[in-house]
Amino acid sequence: MTFGSAIVETLNLRSSDDVKAQLKMEWAMVVQYFPLLLVCFVFQILHSMATNLVFMMEAKQLHGAERLPLHDMGFALLPDISRSEWAAVSEYLTAVMFATLFGMILHTLICDISPRKSAVVLARRYLICVCVLQALRIASFLVTLLPGPAAHCRPLQDTYTEPKGATPTAPWSTHANGAKEFTYEFKDSMYDDFYARSPQNWKDVMFSMDATTGCGDLMFSSHTIFSMSTVCLVFMNYEWALRIFAVVVQLVLAPLIIASRKHYTLDVLTSLYATPLVWFVILKLVPDPPVEREKEALGRGGASYQTLV
Fold first, then answer.
1. With 251 labelled, which of 31, 214, 260, 265 sits at a CA distance of 20 to 30 A?
2. Would you kindly state where each structural domain of the chain is located, as residue ranges?
3. What is the pLDDT of residues 76-105, one digit of tens each?
4. Predicted confidence (pLDDT) per residue in 16-28, tens digit
5. For 79-93, b where at least 16 C-beta lie within 10 A, e where not — what string?
6. Any residues with CB less than 8 A from the CB of 54 and at least 6 apart, and which?
């Protein structure tokens, strides 16, 4: 047995004819579900516009001390790594979850799986869940403006004045001296680019694309929405090895998001339970198509159903 044939047998790879037949079936299903898939992709643009809108609203409504992060139990327990190189680790782990998602789709296309799965059906399930969660997210962060905890959203340390004799340890802290409490007066500064970065008009709201340096707390965490949706997809379609991997990555990712001050603990916690709840409600209301529907798609794609089972 050659090395190549051993890999094919180990991974249970499809033959080239079977891959072509699978791709024909997937294309037929893309055509079948194209309106739904198009709505899901367009919704990503609407979501981007909503995040731009809340940034513009915060720049107009919140000033000085109103931009200070709220008290958060997770912030009190976890060190602030938002200004260190460790802040990027949560982004890398989120990318790992996306890679897992695309790996599952690729695995469906090139490997002989029993029971047979469709890459389009997997993507459809994932996109529907994400879009519903994003709709709930938009409704949440637009009705109440909360100051974003990210480092680039806080007032700069040199943009506030303090009473004489105060010895603060952080610009967002309130300190007490005996029975007397000092309250700090925060002022906007020419060195603070918060307002310069914010969308200035409706054109910016509609056409700006910035997923990393926006401000305003976007309740709830999109990092966790994407990663937990991947976890749900893994549990729905794969065995324990990949399930354990996905859960471990999620358990490491959640506290890193909080330590990086990308979201409040509430944002992450809400996503952790809201995502599976929405996932299974949508699965009940919009179930995956039965095998008979896929047989019809195979016929339209010009492939033989028997070659793929």
1. 214
2. 3-62+72-149+204-308
3. 999 999 888 888 999 999 999 999 999 999
4. 888 888 889 889 9
5. ebbbeeeebebbbeb
6. 141, 142, 145, 216, 218
